Amino acid sequence: MRPMKHPLPTDIVLERVLYALSDPVRLDIVRRLDHLGEASCTALDCGRPKSTMSHHFRVLRDAGLIRTENDGATHINSLRRAEMDQLFPGLLTAILQAGRDGEGGSR
Amino acid sequence: MRPMKHPLPTDIVLERVLYALSDPVRLDIVRRLDHLGEASCTALDCGRPKSTMSHHFRVLRDAGLIRTENDGATHINSLRRAEMDQLFPGLLTAILQAGRDGEGGSR
DNA sequence: TCCATAGTTCGATATTTATCGAAATTACGC
DNA sequence: GCGTAATTTCGATAAATATCGAACTATGGA
Questions:
Q1: What is the model's pLDDT at position B104?
Q2: In this model, does residue B72 exceed pLDDT 90?
Q3: What are phi and psi of A76, to 5 degrees?
Q4: Which of B22, B11, B24, B14 is nearest to B90 (CA)?
Q5: pTM of the predicted protein model
Q6: Nearest nucleotide, C1' to the C-alpha of A52?
Q7: Residue A25: CB less than 7 A from any atom in strand D
Q8: What are the 10-residue block averages of pLDDT along chain A, 107 residues in total?
């Protein structure tokens, strides 16, 4: 299986990154990848059809947020944390941190 | 003129903020508001029709990113920096900072 | 080889959104 | 009150996008 296409750091643009993260499903994927380190596509679907998930993974991949490598029949996804941190310092941290407090913290 | 509607901090949601910032025109508006402090709508259009600009301001306002107050016939826009920083610490800073170096810096 | 598994690609459809012109709204100064 | 300036609202149109089922591709066995 030929490896998937990933944009070079040079081709990663902020607007696309923000757009990719503006969808609840994708933001959730990214949050969980951050938590898990890496995961297969199936491990991250939430009852949604595969085609839908595949679409979201593609948007994230094309934006430069995640890397998808194939390990046999399954695809392993992980955050491109290093590239992101270098290109947009603090961005991912701020986004992943957001909501972890305040938005329903106490009680 | 009745004041415009602005979401309460409670109603500001990350996804919408990211979405609002994923458009080049709007990102530019926010960048310049950050630089200028405040500005009228006309001061920020870039040759684009007013109706188009009005739309973008609305998206930014509805997302909670900017505040629009009326000073007579003109509307004064400014970033809701304090609210943003409180809700999503580091987010705006990271986004406004992004690209100020690296993405074509030296040469 | 045949099958089950993991994902992608293709098509179709329904929403959302960007863009812009024209008309409506509001405020100000004369 | 009137004309002008600043914006919003309306309506239409075109382009993106989300979602899902069905078909297709690749992999690793029994």
A1: 47
A2: no
A3: -100, 120
A4: B14
A5: 0.92
A6: D19
A7: yes
A8: 90 98 97 96 90 97 97 94 97 92 51
What pLDDT digit, counting tens, does each position of B90-100 carry? 999 999 998 77
CA atoms within 13 Å, Cβ hemisphere of A72:
1
Question: How many CB atoms are located within 10 Å of the residue A10 CB?
Answer: 10
What Rg, from alpha-carbon coordinates, does chain A have?
14
- In angstroms, rounded to a whole number, what is the distance separating the alpha carbons of residues B4 and A98? 27
Kindly list the structural domains of chain A, giving each domain's residue range(s) and its CATH number in brackets, ordered by start: 9-96 (1.10.10.10)
B33-36 contacts, C-beta under 8 A, 24 or more apart: B33/B66, B33/B77, B33/B78, B33/B79, B34/B79, B34/B81, B34/B92, B34/B96
B90 vs A93: CB contact, 8 Å cut-off? yes
Distance (Å) from CA A104 to C1' D14?
41
Cross-chain residue pair A99–B21, CB shorter than 8 Å: no
Is A43 in the B-facing interface, judged by CB distances under 8 Å?
no
The answer to whether B98 contacts A86, with C-beta atoms less than 8 Å apart, is: no
pLDDT per position as a tens digit, B7-36: 999 999 999 999 999 999 999 999 999 999
Smallest CA–C1' separation from B1, nucleotide: C26
